[in-house]
Amino acid sequence: SQQGEEDPQALSIQEGENATMNCSYKTSINNLQWYRQNSGRGLVHLILIRSNEREKHSGRLRVTLDTSKKSSSLLITASRAADTASYFCATDAGNTDKLIFGTGTRLQVFP
Amino acid sequence: GAGVSQTPSNKVTEKGKYVELRCDPISGHTALYWYRQSLGQGPEFLIYFQGTGAADDSGLPNDRFFAVRPEGSVSTLKIQRTERGDSAMYLCASSSTGGIFGELFFGEGSRLTVL
Predict the structure, then answer these.
(1) For residue A56, with 0-12 CB atoms within 10 Å meaning exposed, 13-18 middle and 19 or more buried, which class applies?
(2) What are the pLDDT digits (tens) for A3-34?
(3) Which chain A residue has the Cα nearest residue B97?
(4) What is the widest separation between alpha-carbon atoms in chain A?
(5) A30 conformational bin, left if phi > 0, alpha if psi -120 to 50, beta if neither
(6) pLDDT of B81-106, one tens digit each?
(7) Burial class (CB in 10 A: 0-12, 13-18, 19+), B41
């Protein structure tokens, strides 16, 4: 089962532009995480935001969390061709240690 | 090794055969997860171990799927009587704390193709 859904499903931009991806989830959470996956590879953790946090930064990444709307957004600023990948949000199911992943956003950054 | 290791990286088998996929987690990580990912989809949770015990196996699709972690380190995902619909990338991840507290570290996956 999928807890989260990302929007858009696919995004194409030029280098230097910003990329924004959104994630909506269904149940209450303790934290929300974003992962990146290059084609055919494993997932790499990008950032974790806790349910009592509203915004978090890491380098060119900015994540927001709105628990009242059960949604999060990932902003990648000044994108690079190397940012081309699929991006997934993942949440715990509220009272378990398992992480449930969303459907993903496929980002293509053109040089 | 420094990261999560999965073997084999690719496995091609015939319908009806038995398959084992192995995961060697990061040393000292007590939590271990198995996910299945079909092309263009997000990872789908299968099972989660804390130590040697399966803390949550609610994602296993049916009784053809079974996973063990006898010594609390290496885990094996076992699939009996494989079907074409089992074809997917099988991902393993480990964590020092469990997903409710921290990040998961993923291996590169085992791609299973059932002919």
Answers:
(1) middle
(2) 678 889 999 999 999 999 999 998 888 889 99
(3) A97
(4) 43
(5) alpha
(6) 999 999 999 999 999 876 667 789 99
(7) middle
Interface A-B, measured as beta-carbon pairs within 8 A, has a size of 72
| Length of chain B in terms of residues written | 115
Provide the shortest C-alpha distance from residue A108 to chain B (in Å): 14
Q: Do B55 and A97 touch (CB under 8 A)?
A: yes
Q: For residues A6 and B78, what is the distance between their CA atoms, to the nearest angstrom?
A: 31
Q: Are strands A85-92 and A105-110 parallel, antiparallel or unpaired?
A: antiparallel
Taking an 8 Å Cβ-Cβ cutoff, which residues of chain B contact chain A? 4, 31, 33, 35, 41-45, 48, 50, 55-56, 59, 89, 91, 93, 98-109, 111
d(CA B12, CA B10): 7
Q: Which of A45, A50, A98 to mutate to test the interface with B (most CBs of B within 10 A)?
A: A98
Q: Where are the beta strands (DSSP E) in chain B?
A: 5-7, 10-13, 19-24, 31-37, 44-50, 53-56, 65-68, 75-79, 88-95, 105-106, 110-114
Residue type, B36: R
Phi-psi region of A16 (alpha: psi -120 to 50; beta: other; left: phi over 0): left
Dihedral angle sign, alpha carbons of residues B22, A37, A23, B61: negative
